[in-house]
Amino acid sequence: MELDALRDFLALEAPFLLPHDQAILKAKALPPGLVPEGDRRPLWPGTTAADAAGWTRDALAEAVDGHFRRRALRASLTREERLEMHRVMVLSRTLDVLLKRLHQEQKVAWEGKASAQKGFRALGQEAAVGLALRLRRGREDGDILSPLIRGLPPLLMCMDDPEHVVRVQCGKAGTPVDGRDFHTGDLARGVLPPAAPLAIGTQTLVGMAWAAALKKQDRVFLSIMGEGGTSLGDWHEAVNLAAVRRLPVVFVVENNRWALGTHWREQTAAPRFALKAAGYGIPGATVFGNDADEVAAAAAWAIERARAGKGPALLELSTYRRAGHAHHDDDRFHQTAEFPEERAAWEAADPIALYEARLKSEGLLDDPRPVHAEAARRVADAERAALAAPWPSTSFEVYAPRTEPLIREKSTLREMAYDEAVRDALTLAMEKDPRVVVLGEDVGGRYGGAFGVTRGLAKRFGPDRCWNTPLAEGAILGCAVGAALSGLRPVVEMQFADFVAGGFNALVNNAAKVRWRWGRAVPMVVRLPYGAIPGAGPFHAQCPEAWFLRVPGLKIVAPSTPADAKGLLLAAIRDGNPVIYLEAKGLYGLRQPVPEGDVETPFRAHVLREGRELSIFAYGTRVADALAAADVLGPGVAEVVDLRTLAPLDEEAILASVAKTHRALIAHEDAKTGGVGAEIAARIAEKAVFELEGPVLRAAGPDRPYPYAPPLEAAHAAEGDILRAARELLR
Fold it and tell me: Cβ-count burial of 2 within 10 angstroms (0-12 exposed, 13-18 middle, 19+ buried)?
């Protein structure tokens, strides 16, 4: 039996070693000499043929060691563990059947309107219970599982609560999501709720693993992804980030054969997904995903090595999704997508039937019927309780309340440049609060950020708290979400604001929605050096605020002075929500007095210049332009309001100024269409239209990308002339 298992393993991983199977079995390792040493001939500077041969030899040795360790772990599975897996497999399938029935019946309704009762089926994938068997389960300070959206089997291993699942699918109160989402899970019980944008769970888990590593916690994080989701760039970035950092993460690819109606052969040219592990420099293994014992042993091996500080591993479960993507999709999947021969072969390999036969043959299970009966009773109880549960409250705040006290120390002033003030805020925050960490491309080590803003932080606070990450905006931002959920206060730097587009999913679908979806605060800051500087061109000068202005859950601040650059950053770090910090790189050289101590700037607009005839609302680089225009217009004419905060807008201050001057001009560097000016104009029209004595005007950038050549730059800037717009409004 052991020789057969070894031959199967070698056929998958290293068929050229099959002639040496007896020697390998005897040594239970890769014997010396089977892989040639190679010579010292250089392949390129710094690398010889011997080095290259060593890479392959080391990888093969680890793979062989892994095989024998998995065999030992399989033999170590206890009777109690195996019966627990069987019990949860049966419970999962019984619950799956109920969820499908509820969806078909549509009897759960509020005031005559049926709940959608959406859900995703795990039929045929119940052996995935083995993934969670040797996790430290059931609590937030233990190991954490990030399941598939259809991941009932491992979820029930971590939180043995079928009622939770039924309540979530029906949209009832009494769960963390409380009707605001239909994805199951509870972080308090060690399960990160999954999400439809599949890879954000992986990104978040990597961030949680990073936080645990910083805190030197003995924890492991297990992420499950379907084979379709492995095509996502966000998933690749997250795996690479964890591998580079050797974080305690186990990555699982559940090869279901189908992603909605796309066959796995249309997802990859590789014959196995585990082969991709080599590209990240981590070990991989493929196991039969319908065999609970094989799954449990493989997961135990990966968990064991992650806990020992050896970093991630990639497991592939070769299994089959025997139902449609979701409850509503069964008929379409069976009728239009499936291959009959493939379906029949996998139905014959039913994981519960296979496992019950094995347990019976080994004398561990006499009669499975009592297990099925108990599962039916528990699921029926869960149905009754969930259907009797109340509907959720309709009131819920999108923003988390601030829990940190507002700080305004008495302080002397010192002249600082804008970028120096940002660095001073980061330094002060990191000195006072060990939870504050910085991460981003080039923020540590030699450069200190693309503009040198984080220069010296890595030397002062260490590379763990000022992390020089790989170039992967999505993974960086997703990692920050996980770190924030784990109690840290991460500050992300994007090299240029333009590049945040690569992390849009992590910001918009994850950071902004966690509080809404399942009630947790996400205290993180994203520094975006934005706007034009000479020679920037179309990819290094964009103003991204309008991308995020309409996203509930995000806050946006935009300092226009060195003092506010420091004060708003300190306030953002302590706010308790994801805050986009618009850092005007065109102001980096501006020098003004700044409080030396801990002085926060509140998230409110500030009237910089009183006036009677015109209100000019501006932020960032345009505040100085607005003040210059007010000087030309003369004393007391234009009131200049520095917005400072774009989301939420200080509507009270805006309307108060309009009521005073009866004219409004909004200035911003961003393109005119759909910008901040459009939103402010709409609010004035809604709430102060009868105060106006003229149209609301905007002095904004043109609706085209930023150019490169000096004459094109000058023409671009001229279209947002504040003085010209103000004079037009005052005529």
Answer: exposed
* pLDDT for residue 714: 93
Q: H helices within 193-273, ranges in order?
A: 199-214, 233-245
Residue 636 token pair: 């007391």
pLDDT score, position 326 = 82
Per-residue CA distances from 633 to 611, 614, 624, 720, 726 (Å):
10, 10, 14, 17, 9
CA–CA separation, 147 and 462 (whole Å)? 34
At residue 684, what is the residue type? I
Which pLDDT value is given to residue 487? 97
Which two tokens mark 120? 């995703």
Tokens of 634: 């003369």
Which residues are catalytic, by number? 540
Across 323-431, the runs of DSSP E, i.e. the strands, are 413-417
Q: Cβ distance 313 to 305 under 8 Å? A: yes
**Residue 255 pairs with which residues in a beta bridge?**
318
Q: Which residues contact 111 (CB under 8 A, 6 or more apart)?
A: none
Residues 60-107 have pLDDT tens digits of 999 999 999 999 999 999 999 999 999 999 999 999 999 999 999 999
Q: What residues contact residue 27 under an 8 Å CB cut-off, 6+ apart?
A: none
Nearest Cα to 564, choosing from 632, 618, 492, 630? Answer: 618
58-62 contact pairs (CB < 8 A, 24+): 59/278, 59/283, 60/13, 60/14, 60/17, 60/30, 60/35, 61/29, 61/30, 62/283
The CA–CA distances, whole Å, from 259 to 185, 255, 256 equal 22, 9, 7
Task: Provide, rounded to the nearest whole percent, the portion of the chain with pLDDT above 90.
Answer: 88
Residues in CB range of 354: below 8 A, 6 or more apart: 290, 291
- Gap between the terminal Cα atoms of the chain: 94
Q: How confident is the model at residue 404 (pLDDT cuts 50, 70, 90)?
A: confident
Give the predicted TM-score (pTM) of the model.
0.96
What's the 3-state SS for 510-537? Answer: HHCCHHHHHCCCCCEEEEEEECCCCCCC
pLDDT tier, 309 (very low <50, low <70, confident <90, very high otherwise): very high
d(CA 551, CA 578): 11
Whole-number Cα distances in Å, 151 to 78, 318, 729: 24, 15, 60
Tens of pLDDT, residues 580-613: 999 999 999 999 999 999 999 999 999 999 999 9
- Cα dist from 484 to 515, 578, 580, whole Å: 12, 9, 15
User: Based on C-alpha coordinates, what's the Rg of the chain?
Assistant: 29
- Give the model confidence (pLDDT) of 12-51 as tens digits: 888 989 999 999 999 999 888 887 787 888 999 999 999 9
